[in-house]
């Protein structure tokens, strides 16, 4: 009679640490990209607001 194979997978603390570390680095890189995109969007929004202010000022002041 042969012994049945173990139905479980052995997980070591080192395996968990390595996986968490790689996920953390991956998430950190993605988060940096998102922050850069948000910053660029706020720059564009600021430019649009200034442009609208200039147009409104010219129309109200007749310049």
UniProtKB/TrEMBL annotation:
<feature type="transmembrane region" description="Helical">
    <location>
        <begin position="39"/>
        <end position="61"/>
    </location>
</feature>
<keyword id="KW-1133">Transmembrane helix</keyword>
<keyword id="KW-0472">Membrane</keyword>
<protein>
    <submittedName>
        <fullName>Uncharacterized protein</fullName>
    </submittedName>
</protein>
<keyword id="KW-0812">Transmembrane</keyword>
